[in-house]
Design goal:
Length: 253
């Protein structure tokens, strides 16, 4: 397996939650990480906590100029690009009779199209290092939660994309993988206006019994899955489920 030390890793959505956890994880293993997001303050906070190994870039994955800047500065910071972790995403929940077309388009642009176009932007650099692309799926593709169809549809698209891109990019020695998390506390629902941080924490903790292992996950456990896919040289096209058994459909009494 490859050594993380001295790798250059670009992580979108790196200002909080899973992205910030991944940045801390890889930097602690000796990688140079570049984190991106639309909000400067969270990015700078994470970067200052990590130190010189972390570089923050304010930008939007739905913007061509933003994507170009992310890749360019990641290459400058790390001297190359070994891995792209396409983690940026938003939540949109709605009953079907209340669908708003623009909001549907927006969530697909952020969660799917932005990541696809970032793959294009990073392709030459990843091919030069025989690197990898990692998407972030969701247990929403395994268990049906009412009113979450817009979000679930974007995550289903990413999981399907993983296999197709792995087949396409194998000739370039670029590996493609996807991590499918279960319930992990992040800011995504708070940013979407679906409740306060305290309310979302309580909601997720209440889901503990739905996991076969009886608890929700942590961002560190998702980062460990990212690490495996980044390091594993003969693994591509996989969707790695890291959900504590949430997708199994059991309920612990």
């Amino acid at each position: 397996m490859r050594d993380i030390a001295d790798m250059s890793i670009l992580i979108t959505g790196g200002g909080s939650g899973i992205g910030a956890g991944a940045a801390r994880h890889f930097a602690s293993a000796g990688a140079k990480v570049t984190i991106t997001g639309r909000r400067s303050a969270p990015l700078q906070r994470v970067a200052s906590q990590i130190g010189d190994a972390c570089h923050a870039v304010v930008g939007d994955v739905t913007s061509d100029a933003g994507r170009a800047r992310m890749v360019s500065e990641a290459v400058e910071h790390g001297g190359k690009l070994d891995a792209l972790i396409s983690n940026a995403g938003n939540m949109y929940r709605s009953d079907v009779v209340d669908f708003d077309e623009q909001q549907l388009l927006d969530i697909f642009n952020t969660n799917v199209v932005g990541g696809m176009m970032l793959c294009k932007q990073a392709h030459a650099h990843l091919a030069a290092q025989q690197g990898c692309i990692i998407f972030v799926g969701s247990v929403h593709t395994q268990r049906a939660f009412p009113n979450a169809s817009p979000y679930a549809a974007t995550k289903g698209a990413l999981e399907a994309l993983t296999g197709v891109l792995a087949a396409e990019l194998g000739k370039d020695k670029i590996r493609v993988g996807c991590v499918r998390p279960g319930a992990v506390l992040t800011e995504i629902n708070v940013r979407a206006g679906l409740g306060t941080a305290e309310e979302q924490s309580e909601r997720l903790e209440a889901m503990s019994a739905l996991h076969a292992l009886g608890r929700i996950g942590t961002v560190d456990e998702i980062a460990e899955a990212f690490e495996y896919l980044v390091r594993a040289e003969w693994t591509t096209g996989n969707v790695l489920t890291v959900d504590g058994g949430l997708g199994l459909g059991v309920t612990n009494e």
